[in-house]
Amino acid sequence: MEKGTFPALSTNNIKHLQRRVSRLRRLATKYKRSEIIQNTLLEISNIATDVKSLDAFYHGVHSHLQSLLHADNFFIASLDNQTGSISLPFFADEKDPHPSELYPDEELSSLLERGITGYVLKTGDPLLCDEQAFEQLVQQGKIDDLGSACLQWLGVPIKQNNTVTGVLVVQSYSNDIIYGELELELMGFICHHISGVMERLRHHEELESAIIERTKELSTAYEKVKQEVLVRVKAEKLQATLFQIAELSASDVSQSEFYPQIHQVISQLIPAENCFIALINKATETISFPFYVSQINTEHPKPRSLQDGLTEYILKHKKPLLLSQQDILSMIAKGEIYGTNPALNHTQNMKQWIGIPLFIHGEVAGGLTIYSLTDKDSFALKDLEILTFISQHIANAIERKFAVEQLKRSHELLEDKVAKRTQAIAEMNNNLQRQIMQRKKIEEQLVYDAQHDNLTGLPNRGFFMERLSQAVKHIRRHKNEQCALLFIDLDGFKKINDTWGHLKGDRFLVETSNRLKICIRNNDTLARLGGDEFVILLDSISRKQDAKDVCERILKAIAQPFLVAEQQVISGASIGVAYSSKTVCDNSESILRNADTAMYQAKAKGKGCYVVFEPQTDHHFNQKVTLEQDFQQALEQNDIAITLVPIVNFDDNSVIAYEPNSSWQHTTHGDINHQQLQDIASKTQTIMLFDDYLFKYIDRNYAALSEKLGFAPNIHMSLSSKHIKLKYGLRSLRNTIKNARICSSHLWVFFHEKAFVKDNNNHITAFDSLAELGINIGIDGYGTGYSSLTHLSFLPLKALKLDADISQHLLHEKQQRLATAYRLTASTLAFEIFAEGVDTFEQKESLIKQGYFQGQGQAFNLDNIKLDSKNIDNKNDVQPNDERHLENSTS
Questions:
Q1: How far apart are CA 439 and CA 444, in angstroms?
Q2: Quick check: 138 and 39 in contact, CB under 8 A?
Q3: How far is CA 261 from CA 301, 353, 366, in A?
Q4: What is the secondary structure of 222-234 as a DSSP string?
């Protein structure tokens, strides 16, 4: 072979080389395509890493997929396995629009499910389908023919955890674009990456959704907290405003400063550049404006009469209102406001208007008004609510301010009067603490008075019996100890009273109590039971002789002369002594009763001595009990005789009236007179029954008496004050008088002055009640109770009866002057006055000299009228035509 020449190739070698070249070309094309696929997949992976949403990812996949195969006709279908719905998150097609536009009347998910896309989602297998295969699937009823016909359709399922979640689809409408196994494999590889990316992006979206949801929740919570804070701030601000209003109402600021400060408080809550307060004067039917501030009118409105303005509208309807300019114009057009006086209308420039009525003690006393002139200061319903809420506090503040001002003016007037009067009254008005202390002292004094005697300051019966009961209980617990009770009754005290008067008698009792205190120990108890009766509890005595020694000291002390009316008086005492015993039946009442019995025995022995109780001395007490029981039986059996004693005129001895007098013939005690019967009735708590007994006698025989005398006589009844101490007693007395046959004008009822003085309130109330019945009311025993002229002057009284002790002891000039004073009192008050106990001619003449001209007593030799005691029925069921018996007897 020559140099520089190639050997000749055979035909076989040439074919072999051609095959090798072709093979190398295919390998180069394959390697190049692999490189493109690798780069494409790398770009898709980069997109999957950086992309923020599936939509961006789908666009990136479509963009890079076109570098590998023709993908102008490309879409992605997504399946929601929870709901079963199918969607198209990405769609690109040369011929057909989006299926929702192509088939607008059908649901997209249902449409896709019937087509070839739904077929791949159901089977879960890749599908490369040409026209023939497509027609075959349609004929088999597996899919519906939807959309434009294509030459090839390639769909690869997207799976996550072996579950189909979507389909990646490309289509070909041209013969130049053919898909094969390589495209099918490439699409499957891309779907695997898409599945991972979709999972990651789905988690990312879910995380973002969770973050967004949580952010919304936190935002909502923040707004809620913010709103609560705003509400709390408003509430605190409102509370602070109320405190300011309360402080203003109690402050000493003047009225000219008070309302501007109220305005400042309101301005803290609501814009109130235009504000005024109106107040009503009901007495003059006018309205005034104590506060007024406005941006357009500085002139303060003057008081005027109530008309039909906007302010009067809210005062009339008593409701808060928030009105716009249109609302005001509508009201004017309807004639609801400014109809009679259009000149009052100054609302032309107002944008909004708020009116709140101010209530004081449940009645409208004025109004609070705020209005705006620009849209900048607009009001809402919450402003109306806030203003309505604080308006009541403003009204209370105004009312308290008025009260303070009124009180201040009253104090000024009072101080002017006090300055002209006494300094003591001024101190009482200016020092409330002193009044409180005085009230405490009065309360303490009331407690003390309830337990002590008003005259001597000694413990009274109730207090003493409590101490005695405690002592008895102590003795029962301590068998070795003993106590003694001394019952003391003064001798001759009635004579001292009758001779020197009750005032001197009271001084005598005080001196007696002082002497008794000296005779006992500090731990002993001295008490006054009433009248001239005293008791002493000797607590914890070691022997009985100790009580006797005390009795000796008492008798010696009382026997010393007393100085009464500048004259020496000798008195004495009778003492009953009772010792405590160990028996269970021994109690405070029995010891007191024993001592009382022993005292009566001392009286019987001649007075001025002491007697120790012995069981046999109890016989006297039993007699008293028997007598009281017999008295009650006598009332029931009508054994008490009634005599009518005349009240006469001193000049001619003519009868003016009759008064019942009773007597009782007892089998053991003999004749018991009217005074003794009254004493027994008082002690046995039957005095009301006794009075009723007398009244029924008179009432039943009144008609017969009137017929006998030829005229209807006046009847004087002396009643116990127990009738009027209790409501049921007064009610019973009123019923008795109403049902009586005696004409009310002929009936005179008298109550004793001592009882009247002790209980003014009940007597005054009862007198008014009884006076309504038309009867005549009087006071008897006059001169013994020292009733004041003030009380007598306004009572519905008709008569006074001078006490018998005064009538019978007109021996001294002072006593005569006192009787004259009593008569002048009756004359001044236009009262009738009668004298009781006129038993002698000398007494009658003495009374006539003092100006007395009517009375009763044994000095008048007239016939008393005796009533038959058997002619009475205590059941008060007597018929008007019952037989009556009258007898005459000489007094």
A1: 8
A2: no
A3: 19, 21, 18
A4: HHHHHHHHHHHHH
Residue pLDDT, tens place only, 633-688? 888 888 899 999 999 999 888 999 999 999 999 888 889 998 888 888 887 788 88
Strand partners, 567: 564
Please give the backbone phi and psi of residue 302, each rounded to the nearest 5 degrees, phi first: -90, 155
Cα–Cα distance measured from residue 260 to residue 264, given in angstroms and rounded to the nearest whole number: 6
pLDDT tens-digit readout, 21-51: 877 777 776 676 677 677 777 777 777 666 6
Q: Of 808, 801, 843, whose CA–CA distance to 822 is shortest?
A: 801
Number of other CB atoms surrounding residue 370 within 10 Å: 25
Q: Is 8 helix (H, G, I), strand (E, B) or coil?
A: coil
What is the bridge-based pairing of β-strands 714-719 and 747-752? parallel
CA distance linking residue 265 with residue 19, whole number of Å: 107
The pTM score is: 0.38
Q: Evaluate whether 537 touches 471 at the Cβ level (below 8 Å).
A: yes
Cα pseudo-dihedral 357, 359, 364, 369, rounded to 10: -20
Provide DSSP, 345-385: ---TT-SEEEEEEEEETTEEEEEEEEEESSSSS---HHHHH
Burial 307-343 (b: 16+ CB within 10 A, else e): ebbbbbbbbeeeebbbbeeeebeebbeeeebbeeeee
Choose among 775, 780, 790, 772: nearest CA to 829: 790
Alpha carbon distance 530, 132 (integer Å): 142
What is the C-alpha separation between 571 and 683, in angstroms, rounded? 27
Left (φ > 0), alpha (ψ -120 to 50) or beta: where does 162 sit? left
Angle between helices 255-267 and 381-420 (to 10 degrees): 160
End-to-end CA distance of the chain: 210
Q: Which long-range contacts (CB under 8 A, 24 or more apart) does 757-764 make?
A: 757/785, 757/786, 757/787, 758/785, 759/721, 759/725, 760/791, 762/721, 762/724, 762/725, 763/721, 763/724, 764/791, 764/795
Q: Could you read off the pLDDT of 273-330 as tens digits, one per residue?
A: 888 888 888 888 888 888 888 887 667 888 888 888 888 888 888 888 888 888 888 8
DSSP string covering 597-617:
HHHHHHHHTTSSSEEE--GGG
The 8 Å CB, 24+ separation contacts for 838-842 are 838/807, 839/808
Q: At 876, is the pLDDT very low, low, confident or very high (cuts 50, 70, 90)?
A: very low
CB 249 within 8 A of CB 397: yes
SS3 state at 88: strand
SS3 493: helix
| Token representation of residue 327 | 């609302």
State the Cα–Cα distance between residues 15 and 707, nearest whole angstrom: 185
Centroid of chain to Cα 579: 56
| Helix ranges (DSSP H) in 66-168 | 99-102, 108-114, 116-123, 131-139
3-state secondary structure of 416: helix
Which among 251, 273, 246 has a CA at the least distance from the CA of 390? 246
DSSP, collapsed to helix, strand or coil, labels residue 685 as coil
Alpha-carbon dihedral sign for residues 755, 757, 759, 761: positive
By the 8 A CB rule, do 770 and 737 touch? yes
Q: What whole-number distance in Å separates Cα of residue 836 and Cα of residue 822?
A: 13
Pairing relationship of beta strands 610-612 and 572-579 according to DSSP bridges: parallel
Task: Give per-residue burial for 205-232: e unless 16+ CB within 10 Å, then b.
Answer: eeeeeeeeeeeeeeeeeeeeeeeeeeee
What is the rounded average pLDDT for all residues in the chain?
Answer: 82
Kindly provide the b/e burial profile for residues 742-772, where b requires at least 16 CB atoms within 10 angstroms of the residue's own CB. Answer: beeebbbbbbbbebbbeeeebbbebbeebee
Spatial CA neighbour of 494 closest among 776, 724, 808: 808
Q: How far apart are CA 371 and CA 351, in angstroms?
A: 7
